[in-house]
Amino acid sequence: xxxxxxxxxxxxxCFGIACKKDFLNHPSTTAPxxxxxxxxxxxxxxxTGILYNAVWGDWFDKAFTSVGDLLGGTVxxxxxxxxxxxxxxxxxQGTDGLVSSTWxxxxxxxxxxxxxxxxxxxxxxxxxGGDNTAFLDRGIAEARFIRGFAYFYIGRAFGDAPIVDxxxxxxxxxAYLVPKYHQKDVLRFALExxxxxxxxxxxxxxxxxxxxxxxxxxxxxKIYLYLKDYTNAAAKAKLVIDxxxxxxxxxxxxxDDYNGMFTSSAIANKKNKENLFSLRWLSEMxxxxxxxxSIYAAPQPLVHPKPTGGNGYSAVVPSFDMLxxxxxxxxxxxxxxxxxxxxxxxxxxxxxxxxxxxxxYDTTGRATDDHFIFTGTRSNIQKYIVxxxxxxxxxxxPDGHTSMPTYILRYADVLLxxxxxxxxxxxxxxxxxxxAAFNRVHNRAGLTSVTVLTNKLILHERKVEFxxxxxxxxxxxxxxxxxxxxxxxxxxxxxxxxxxxxxxFKATLNSxxxxxxxxxxxxxxQDPKLLEPAVDYYK
Length: 539
Hints:
The chain is mainly alpha-helical and 539 residues long. Helices cover 42% and strands 5% of the residues. Strands 1-3 form a two-stranded antiparallel sheet. Pfam families: SusD-like_3, SusD_RagB.
């Protein structure tokens, strides 16, 4: 935790990153202070922009997929791959690098947001408040939204965890020894941030990609669902749905182009009605803020030949559990073709040195090279892959960075949250509103409407709708240990050998502790209080 303090104290001086688009175009400044800076909306927006980007880099690098999808069983990794293997088989240790990456990014984002909250509050006092400081109120609300999400993720990933409202307080002697607080308090803290954000954010984003009042309501609905507070989950989700069905129809709805939303940064980033909250990446920022998912997930023949020339390691690929129509994408589900690449998959737009007439996915070479791909499940993830560099139309850097965003909350999620909240843990429901919400998502995938909803049906819909988006593990986790154990035990996580023979692997949950990540050992060494039982944050 002490290392985080050092970062946080320098946070205000970190907004000079040069970009060329949208709100990631932070103004170049030298040591801005409350006295000489944050005098207008442009300066405040430049500071909050980084909360959507670089602070999440370590988590998004590999931990995003490992926590949400490897644990959840929607993807499988190469057996023996040290980066992913402990998540593949639930043998996670406090010394694992991806555990630290998750912890560090979440607390970095939360801490930087906290510093901005305190800074903007101080600036508001200097300016005397009133209507002329409305831009600061919006900046505070935006920072509280990001902090709320960070603590929601911390609570889901780690369970009991520290809460730091004002990082500057930790500079006092001994104050960096922070205890763990109960998970319920961590989530309550997140809800309070999100409610404050909802109270002060606009209904329509001031720039594409910034969070709004309805993004905050939607995130609150997701937390309430996680807590099994179905009444509040339904109420918050309905606020979003009613807005979409009414005055917000032109700015909030399902995107008709599901595939394009995940394979075109232009479709994803520009007036994307389905996007409520996403992390925003720019290819030209490279390792400091570009989307590097294709480096790990794309097939080599797609991104290695020119004009891109990067690598596609296929380190994580769709699992057989997802590819089996009995457990994953059913035969008529269009999301399979929109989310996965398999034999004979073709895309005209994806052209490179080896595929001048468009990319065709071919496994017949029985080995991976610049023309053939041969993964353990003979498939690759299509989501978040934009293909080879196409210049201004779809820039991809030579080392594989793109401008695709990472979706954290989509309108489809709110619709399914509402359906599940109405079901409220019961056996089934035929409620018209719940069915309408569910079937909007279901029908977009080319599937016929259902007339009765069950928890099993909704959970499966979430699995196929949000596969490879870093979230399914938490849907399993919130079912409770016994159900989670059964779900995990039923999943095929194995891979094929070179002769096409399956090496089956079924993971096992042995204890409730495995539902959460361990606190990184490096943190417990510096802060022994983290090894003690959790205490109450709210007295």
